[in-house]
């Protein structure tokens, strides 16, 4: 039976990790450029000043990645092709780890991700706030977010209010008449998620949980101060660019646009009349988002499209390549700037932006982003993980690594089908568990 049919709520839900023992976690990052499977051993860790929100150390024991097929802008476009790539990636990771996988945490970049805040209030009648009241108000907010055509990926309480006073982090045991909560809910189109799940199921695997790509890459690439003070993580993938905004230790907003590094490649292939793989190579070797004086003088040979060996490569100045790359990169960054502006989270993002994802490695990208977004920009690589091969330490692997970190924070979420929060993870002392402090007393 499909997990989708198993509850009115729809999505498979993560089981929380135990803070006492080790776990093996497997994840699958299904992207438009590559499909990555990682298997890791999570072992409980002592509290530490470095990445204090993490309850476990993550050590990668198996990794497999394949060039993506059958996935366009994060959407499964060809089931057979996508399924065979998933099988190959999982198979390679299993061989390296020396174990077999039956269920995986999968990322979601498509399905028109949307991010909404739902507010709910309940009457306390002047009594003190008890765990059951928290459960009731969280349940009420979750219920308000349920929709037929969309499935909830994440629902995170971002703050409580008592008698209209906002910004209460933990209302337990306080007195008041009205308790309110703001719930950040990330949803995606149900059909897109079903096809994603179907693709994994056809490879004889089950989906253990689904995580929005922007959430995962933010978890991997941001440092604690950024997450606490307010920051945007922009994950530039092959087919989609996703945005996540974090503040006060929590995910407060997500968004996605269907533009990515692959669009730069196709622009080059069209503009220079060459094959896609040749255009990709030229982008990596010669592409830049910033023009410089030598561009007019440097000449690049462009391989022709034809099969005929007698066709000679055309010679073009590097400036032409730069112009094509720059135009598309600027368009993408301007769209992101406008989306952040429109979201109303611009003040929270402040001056901090972290770029990650495969397409963030393009030469000159951070300078262009600094200029267009008018903010400090750094390139974010996945942090706090051991056992990653050198090839997988770059920003292209942030999402996969973030999926590994996700089970450590999954307990912050509230789901209507469960009438409350998932059981407490660890000892609740991480910064992500502050609102969930009352969990360990009450469940």
Give the C-alpha Rg.
23 Å
> What's the CATH first level of the largest domain?
Alpha Beta
Quaternary organisation:
single chain
Q: What does the largest sheet look like?
A: 6 strands, mixed
Number of DSSP E strands? 21
**Model regions low in confidence, pLDDT < 50 over at least 5 residues:** 1-9, 416-443
Which range does the strand content fall in?
Answer: 25-35%
- CATH fold node name of the largest domain: Nucleotidyltransferase, domain 5
CATH architecture of the largest domain: 2-Layer Sandwich
Distance between the termini: 30 Å
Number of alpha- plus pi-helical segments:
12
Q: Secondary-structure map with pairings?
A:
Blueprint: E1 23-30, E2 34-44, E3 56-67, E4 71-72, E5 75-76, H1 79-97, E6 103-108, E7 114-123, H2 131-145, E8 150-162, E9 165-168, E10 178-189, H3 190-202, E11 206-212, H4 213-221, H5 224-229, E12 231-236, E13 241-247, E14 250-257, H6 261-272, H7 276-286, E15 299-302, E16 314-317, H8 318-343, H9 346-349, E17 352-356, H10 365-373, E18 376-379, E19 385-386, H11 398-405, E20 414-415, E21 420-421, H12 439-442
Parallel strand pairs: 1-6, 3-19, 6-11, 12-17, 17-18
Antiparallel strand pairs: 1-2, 2-3, 4-5, 7-10, 8-9, 8-10, 12-13, 13-14, 15-16, 20-21
Helix pairs in contact: 1-3, 4-11, 6-7, 6-8, 8-10
Domain SHS2: 25-221
Function: Cell division protein that is involved in the assembly of the Z ring. May serve as a membrane anchor for the Z ring.
GO cellular component, one term: cell division site
